[in-house]
Write a structure and sequence with these properties.
mainly beta
Length: about 120
């Protein structure tokens, strides 16, 4: 029987990077755009490919809606091929299932501000 593991992802695409994978080991690690990490003892590789879109409300603004950010991830099980997935921060498809794992995005930083432009490619 396969063990189910939930990976909670906190992704940062500028000014430092942290990816948090939570499972039975509660492992945390840093990851930038195009960075990758092997988790669960070489069984699963996670690569943060890009921020596809970001309409989140800046923290120093008043918005009718909190907005959403969509990220692209690549996942690979040991000896398998890379598969591409997209996850959202605030609308559906916040969680995917892959090879007996549940992967869920729980945050994306930095949070937008009205006077700072975020470089999505760093």
């Amino acid at each position: 029987m396969k063990t189910k593991l939930i990976l909670a992802l906190i992704l940062i695409f500028a000014c430092g990077s942290v990816l948090q994978a939570k499972g039975r080991t509660n492992e945390q690690f840093k990851l930038q755009v195009n960075g990758q990490k092997t988790v669960t003892k070489d069984k699963l590789k996670v690569k943060f490919v890009s921020v596809v879109e970001d309409s989140r409300c800046p923290i120093d603004a008043n918005c009718a809606w909190a907005g959403n950010a969509k990220i692209q991830l690549k996942l690979k099980k040991k000896n398998g091929a890379w598969e591409t997935f997209e996850l959202n921060t605030d609308i559906e498809k916040r969680e995917i299932r892959f090879g007996g794992y549940a992967i869920k995005i729980v945050g994306l930083t930095p949070t937008p501000r009205t006077n700072i432009r975020i470089n999505r490619n760093r």
